[in-house]
Design goal:
The chain is mainly alpha-helical and 53 residues long. The protein has 2 helices and 2 strands, in the order E-E-H-H. InterPro entries: BOW99_gp33-like.
Length: 53
């Protein structure tokens, strides 16, 4: 990151996160985010199965 640049990480719950690498140590993903991840996994599995994998 360039010197003098400030990044503000505003999370889905509205909180501000100073360090993304430690965010999940103190917070859980919102249910909507968890659902999206599960949906992506299921969609990927369906695509792989359709391709014979």
């Amino acid at each position: 990151m360039k010197e003098g640049v400030k990044v503000t990480n505003i999370m889905a719950d509205g909180s501000i996160c100073e360090d993304l690498s430690t965010y999940l140590d103190n917070h859980e993903l919102p249910e909507d985010a968890k659902s999206l991840i599960v949906d992506f996994i299921r969609a990927g599995r369906k695509i792989r199965e359709a391709q014979g994998g």
